[in-house]
UniProtKB/TrEMBL annotation:
Pfam families, A to Z: 2OG-FeII_Oxy_2 (PF13532)
Keywords annotated in UniProt: Dioxygenase, Oxidoreductase
Native species: Klenkia taihuensis
GO molecular function, one term: dioxygenase activity
Domain Fe2OG dioxygenase: from-to ranges: 111-209
Keyword Ligase carried by entry: no
Protein name stated in the entry: DNA-N1-methyladenine dioxygenase
Superkingdom of the organism of origin: Bacteria
GO aspect biological process, one term: DNA alkylation repair
InterPro entries to which the protein is assigned, alphabetical: AlkB-like, AlkB-like_sf, ALKBH3, Oxoglu/Fe-dep_dioxygenase_dom
Length: 211
């Protein structure tokens, strides 16, 4: 982890306990096309420095490699997958998962189960255009809820067949939720940025069998 820029919150910030603010009536729905939607609530988590500090620590981050044509290349972010039942590294994250489960129960019909995490070490880290289509996400509507910690980055979405893209800012403690047909009919990405940004951790809650 030595390649990562140091994040140094003040002692004052670290002493603050993080809190989840209410969701109902505050989260704003942005309808897309084809029955896809995005819910956005900047500042859902208040006092997130302690959570970020834990997430930037030794929680089992992995540097993956993948085959690209005839070369093997490094995946431009670190990954950590928490399976259903695995304890999450900060209690606020377990609480976030239950609160999201309660809020989306009517639309989702099942609880959020797994927590996939990505660590974008700096502006060179990114995730390319894709939909979360491993498993049922390729054929059925689902909901993927993302809580961001650390430096702000953008989440872009564009229709699979082409069309104008939408941009959502993902800052420290912000919530963005992709739902309806979004994983099938839209793609999303977190582009690289030339801005001098520090690390960002994305925590993605998904129901069982979606990735
Ligand atoms: O960093 C993010 O918030 C998005 C990550 C993502 O799309 C994924 O891991 O499937
Ligand atoms: Fe994704």
């Amino acid at each position: 982890m030595s390649a990562m820029p140091a994040h140094q919150p003040s002692m004052w910030d670290l002493a603050d306990e993080p809190v989840l603010t209410p969701l109902p009536g505050r989260v704003v729905r942005h309808p897309l096309t084809a029955g896809a939607w995005v819910d956005h609530l900047p500042g859902w988590v208040e006092g997130s420095d302690q959570v970020l500090e834990v997430l930037l620590g030794d929680i089992g981050w992995r540097a993956d490699r993948r085959q690209m044509y005839d070369r093997e290349v490094a995946v431009p972010r670190l990954l950590r997958w928490f399976d259903e039942g695995e304890e999450l590294p900060h209690p606020l994250l377990g609480e976030a998962r239950s609160r999201l489960g309660a809020h989306y129960a009517g639309e989702l019909g099942e609880p959020f189960a797994t927590a996939g995490m990505c660590l974008y070490r700096d502006g060179r880290d990114s995730v390319a255009w894709h939909g979360d289509r491993i498993g049922r996400g390729s054929s059925q509507d689902t909901v993927v809820a993302i809580v961001s910690f650390g430096s702000p980055r953008s989440l872009l979405l564009r229709p699979v067949g082409g069309g104008d893209s939408r941009r959502f800012a993902l800052g420290h403690g912000d919530l963005v939720v992709m739902g309806g047909s979004c994983q099938r009919t839209w793609d999303h990405c977190v582009p690289k940025t030339s801005k001098a940004v520090g690390p960002r951790v994305s925590v993605q809650f998904r129901p069982r069998g979606i990735a």
